[in-house]
Amino acid sequence: MPAPVRIxxxxxxxxxYPFALGGPYGxxxxxxxxxxxxxxxxxxxxxxxFEFRGPLGIPVQIGSSLALLVAFYLFVAGANLFSxxxxxxxxLAAIFLHELGHAWASEVQGVPVRRIVLYGGGGFCENKxxxxxxxxxxxxxxxxxxNLALWALCSLGAYWLWEGIIADGSFVQIGRxxxxxxxxxxxxxxxxxxxxxxxxxxxxxxPVQPLDGGKLLHLILLRLTHAEAAMKxxxxxxxxxxxxxxxxxxxxxxxxxxxxxxxxxxPLHFAMARGRLA
Length: 278
Description:
alpha/beta, 3-stranded mixed sheet, protease, transmembrane helix, hydrolase, membrane, zinc
């Protein structure tokens, strides 16, 4: 079982907001997604070192900065190599499946996906054309839904395994060299993967830019009011949360929580709150 350690990944956002022709949260002329435009990632690189054909025939590219992520995680967490690699691989799998959820939602609506990229700062899904606001509602929400589904399935699987382990008495071990029931290890790893996916789902639904929660808030407001008001309200809510973000991170990190050290842009949300973006 990997040792319980903190997960810390640094995200430094750009101040560029992903509004473009084709509607709110539409893509720029080269149709790159919000993640690529909204984040300046300290681990980001543009040169893929490995590429394979993923589900739905979508190219998946791996950035060289993943090695930096592993090194950084080992330095911060102080975990042994094997445990750290397990946790990093689980985190990357959860991020990949999150992006695959976005990609699937794009494909089923006729928005072709150019590629999915995984790198040291996370991942992004790049489309070949702009998506309408209605299409983007489904695209945005599918990422967190995938993580929530994985959290539920892994939690149920771990619960089922623990029930069997306790019923069989396998949980009680006598002696240092007593054999360990492999179901215990599997249940522990399922719990860990469930925890990672649950955290990513909740984290991504926080209503700040460029997280999915910020996009969903704006898209919902577009259904209720006009575009300028929707942007201002989204910006004001995001501005309040951005100001509170750093002391919140310090508190949770001090409590030993697992965090993604993401810092939302105060200037970006301030500009939105004033209606300066279009």
